[in-house]
Design goal:
Length: 429
Amino acid sequence: MALQPLAERLRPRTLDGYIGQQHLVGPKGIIRRMIDTGNIASFILWGPPGVGKTTLARIIANTTNSAFFTLSAVTSGVKDVRDVIEKASRESSGMFSSGRPILFIDEIHRFSKSQQDSLLGAVENGTVTLIGATTENPSFEVIRPLLSRAQVYTLKPLLESDLKLLLEQAIKNDEILSQCNVRVEQTDALFRYAGGDARKLLNILDLLQQSTVAGEDIVINDRIITERLQENPQAYDKNGDMHYDIISAFIKSIRGSDPDAAVYWLARMIAGGEDPEFIARRMVILASEDIGLANPNAMLIANATFDIIQKIGMPEGRIPLSECAIYLAQSAKSNSAYLAIDAALAEVEQSGNLPVPLHLRNAPTSLMKKLGYGQNYMYAHDYPGNFIQQQFLPDALAMRTFWHPCTNPAEDVMAQRTEARWNGFGKKR
């Protein structure tokens, strides 16, 4: 047993020793109620690594009277699924059966569509109760028919109070650490490196114990933790939810005019190895969507940043990325151009291909001229101020307005100019 990793040695077998996820396993938690009553419904546990998904499944296995089967999506195929379902079917029909068999599938997101399809019938007819575990968003990784048959429960990273309790239990209860003199002087670095991951915290303790000379105290402080671990690999999955969550936080921080938050989320992406061109591309989009006419220079700067990143790469590219993010965050904001084109597209979808007014049509042939193409068109440069009121929209939409300026200095000027030009024509903004 001593040769097992600390995380495995300390894995609880009942809910009494389980740490965290009180919204699920607390006195009123749904999973606690299922375990207490023995009525386990199909569900999927979704959360980051090291927050207790597999441990919860094993606790159910230890406390339920039902037959319990496990599969790993990494090593199992459709044949393995069918074999287990067949065994479960025989188990549930046996004379000593005391409940519906439970099938636990770790990393269920790695199952292909056909593998997930092979589960549907058994879950639907009650041959098995499915418990899945995944670090990926089930909305994207689990087929809809399976999602409709299994409730999704979200597990959260452990709180600092949870990590503190876990540290205390490890020092007190582990058969190896309890025999050592462990001095806890500081925990900031330990908890920061753990990042809400119980397994990572216990692995760090394992490393400290194994790298301490026999007979010496195991000292936990920020300096020792940092020295032993050397660096803190950032939790960032460029192809998973973290990628989308952090870019979302980055964009919303710039839209919300918080340069400090924008630079922080930018740093998270850079430290996690995000593609800098992806970041720059998103800032070009934001500059047109969220800043727009309030500061047209923003798009020029964002586009220049994208060009610079392509030329110089990283790590130097972090500087223009930061400069652009700060500039966009502190800039005036407007989404009027974004709303205008969407409103116009909605109108096109509804009203279809309305004819172009004759006076706006080109007349390259004599026949077209005879049909009235181009007649009564007024050339703007022939009039004072290079402007003359005339209809440019289709007849059915003559009075429609799609652009509604936002309130900011730049668009205030545009709005006044537009109002002065079109006053009396009938358009209202």
